[in-house]
Amino acid sequence: xxxxxxxxxxxxxxxxxxxxxxxxxxxxxxxxxxxxxxxxxxxxxxxxxxxxxxxxxxxxxxxxxxxxxxxxxxxxxxxxxxxxxxxxxxxxxxxx
Length: 96
Description:
Largest sheet: none
Helix content: 55-70%
Radius of gyration: 18 Å
Number of strands: 0
Strand content: under 5%
Number of helices: 5
């Protein structure tokens, strides 16, 4: 018997590489991404890719418009930092 994930992992919406990130961004944001990536020192490039991958994932989130509207309306569910820290501690995850 093998363990199966509860939520099967499919291919990522945005591949974690420069080409995938650029393809997920619209024209002006794509140019900002390339400009920042090309200006980054080699040791900074990974951080630039990581940040823009997060931006691309948010841009392509099917629920993005709903979440944005809820945030602007003040109806987005929130949680306190204390609750998050407690949940991480209960799960045995690091808290720094």
